[in-house]
Amino acid sequence: MEPPGYMYPGQLHTTTAAGGHNTIVLQAEPPRDHIIWSLCCFLYSNPLCLGLAALIFSIKSRDRKVAGDLEGARHYGATARCLNIAATIIACITVIIAIVGVALLVNPTRPQKETFQ
Fold this sequence. Notes:
It is built from 3 helices and 2 strands. It is mainly α.
């Protein structure tokens, strides 16, 4: 049993005008593991194996959350998010370069060399 006046993390304690006490418990947002984003990066693009690394960190984040280590879960989740961002940016740049490259190769309006007879 907790001693009188013990406060849990995230609790606010106020006193009303009538002398009563109100305790408000603030729930922290659960850590995000970004598992779906990591799966998409791993299955669809996976540049430089960043998708695989993000997937591993997402799984570690989920394991930490289940074990009750919310700070560790936040840390692993933040790392997974950074890796997912990097993988997504690299994949988008690669797709844009490929589209521009194909468009330049098949462009029928580029100047042709004239042959003289």
